[in-house]
Amino acid sequence: MPHTLVAFHAHPDDEALLTAGTLAKAAAAGHRVVLVVATDGALGLTSGDFRDGLGARRLHELQRSAAAMGVARVIHLGYADSGMVGAIPPDLPGSRRFVRATAAPGLLADILRAEHADVLMTYDAAGGYGHRDHVKVHQVGAEAARLAGTPRVVEATVPRELLSRTVRFVSRFYRFPSNFDLGVYERAFTPRAQITHRIDVRHQIAQKRAAMAAHASQAAADDGADRTLSLFLKIPRPIYDVVFGREWFRDPAHTGPISDDIFSGLA
Question: For residue 260, is it within any domain?
Answer without folding.
Answer: no
